[in-house]
Amino acid sequence: MITPTQLTAQANTQTQSASQSQTTSIASDFDTFLLLMTTQAQNQDPLEPMDSSEYASQLAQFSMVEQQVQSNDLLSELALSLGGIKLEELASWVGMDVQTTAAFHFDGEPVTLSALAPAAADSAVMVIRDRKGAEIERISVQVTQTEFAWAGTANDGSPLPTGSYSATLESYDGEELLSAQPVSTYNQVVEAQVGEDAVLLTLESGQVVPVGMVTGVRAGT
Length: 221
Prior knowledge:
Layout: H1 4-42, H2 52-93, E1 97-100, E2 104-106, E3 111-114, E4 123-130, E5 135-141, E6 147-150, E7 163-173, E8 176-182, E9 185-194, E10 199-203, E11 208-210, E12 216-218
Antiparallel strand pairs: 1-9, 1-12, 2-7, 3-6, 4-5, 4-7, 7-8, 9-10, 10-11
Helix pairs in contact: 1-2
InterPro entries: FlgD, FlgD/Vpr_Ig-like
Domain FlgD/Vpr Ig-like: 106-174
Protein name: Basal-body rod modification protein FlgD
């Protein structure tokens, strides 16, 4: 069995081997260039010494090769560092429960929904929708409540199948709709991957969210 730690170590070892091979190749070229230039200077004809402009050109080439070697070393170290951090970060997310406003997974057990109605509201309704966005239940709730336990039943009381659902809290002042805000729930992370700008988490509900949407984290249940 390969653990996340072993995976990180293997990836770092492979990256390090590749970078060392590249550095060795460039360093070898650098040493060869230095040897040729030194030999040329030692064996030049005193009566017809090397042209100063040609000598300056070769010195410039020498400097470029030296900078290439140094840059390669720095980039290799940076790649190793970033690679290790990303793998460790990804491994740490998998299996955790994260709180987001994304759709949640219902498996037959009650789901805790979190939301807060505006202070001006005098009534509130929790609206449950299936994965296609179809409304399946409306539940009147107290405006002072911040957490709600959803049993997973339809308006007629029949149990709903396992799957992905979403919830919205509609807040009213009389008959006026003040807001319709997404409700947050905890979902387990089943996969984590590096996106273009952030780590992306695939939730048990099938939703993919960036870590920036996470408002809470707890040990997986």
